Amino acid sequence: MDPELEAFIPFLPPLDMDDPVAARKIFAERAASAPAPDTSNMEVEDRTVPADPDVAVRIYRPHRAQGAIVWLHGGGGVFGDLDTEHPWATRIADLAGAVVISVNYRLAPEHRFPAALDDAYAVLTWAAEHAAELGVDPERIAVGGHSAGAAIAAAVALRARDQQGPAIRLQLLNEPGVDDRQRTWSRQNFTDVPWMDSGKIAAAWRHYLGSQPATPYAAAARAADLSGLPPAYIATAEFCPNRDEDIEYALRLLQAGVSVELHQWPGTFHGSQAILSAEVSQRQIAGLTTALRRALAA
Fold first, then answer.
1. What average pLDDT does the structure give for the chain?
2. 172-222 pLDDT tens trace
3. Residue 285 pLDDT
């Protein structure tokens, strides 16, 4: 474990994925206690995207943005919202110089798959149709997210390909959960790692899927054909249960002819880049935002 990260492990908040309401409360309280980010160099606006049902979004417009990203927060699909994601969305908009459309997708278990995917896809479609209003090129729109949000982003890319939907410039996938099956070494062995271990991830999948079988739009690793997908930036953490399925997904994308940038960050755990003081976290964030800036400028 990276020593800068290890020092913070005793202070991580408890996370009971078997009690989504409690998990939401703890996560929201933790996020609310953080200093408010500086948004002086951008416009921030709450909007409602017309859909069935409507989807709340928060739009971050830095000056001279070249493109946009539909951004999906983490939280196992059961917690997180526009407010908890506010610091991250601000950081991405600032460092990548991109319009960030942060999505308040519906959460499980009250709203199981495909609710979150439907919300995210509706926002992507809206963003492409309203690119001029957003001040961006409709050909320069990416999708991305952390953890469960990254999993939804991967599914959005699959759905956009299959349905001839909006063009996606990049899928920015940070520690995504792309496989509901507990078949990889990391999913089977990381049972006692910080913050998000394999048991908590299994609980998140149970909340997300309920009794229904997983499809590729729920778990992208189940897709038989990955050809024709947008270029991907995939980041993994060494002590993350999702690590091996993410590396396998990156390899399968490459084998299907999709351009991939894969980063495996040593000494890190799932979500540890939230510990901003650690040098490795700063490199992780720079990697994500630099990849986005480069893709949208190309």
1. 96
2. 999 999 999 999 999 999 999 999 999 999 999 999 999 999 999 999 999
3. 98
Hunting for tokens 């410039």 — which residue is that?
169
Question: Which residue's entry shows tokens 């983490």?
Answer: 74
If residue 234 lies in a helix (H) or strand (E), which one and from where to where?
Answer: strand 232-239
CB 221 within 8 A of CB 179: yes
pLDDT of 30:
86
d(CA 247, CA 263): 9
Q: How far apart are CA 223 and CA 217, in angstroms?
A: 8
- Pairing, β 99-103 against β 55-62: antiparallel
Q: How many CA atoms lie within 13 A of 106 on its CB side?
A: 21
Q: Residue 197: its pLDDT value, please?
A: 97
The arrangement of strands across the sheet holding 55-62 comes to 42-49, 55-62, 99-103, 68-72, 141-146, 171-174, 232-239, 260-269
Closest CA to 221 of 182, 260, 166, 259: 182
Q: Is 261 helix (H, G, I), strand (E, B) or coil?
A: strand
The two structure tokens encoding residue 144: 């991305």
Tell me how crowded residue 40 is: count the other CB atoms within 10 A of its CB: 5
Tokens of 171: 């899928």
* pLDDT single digits (tens) 68-86: 999 999 999 999 999 999 9
| Residue (of 213, 151, 198) closest to 179 by Cα position | 151
> Can you name the residues that pair with 285 across neighbouring β-strands?
none
The neighbour count for residue 64, using CB atoms within 10 Å, is 7
Whether the full predicted model's pTM is greater than 0.90, yes or no, is yes
Does residue 114 have a cis bond before it (omega within 30 degrees)?
A: yes
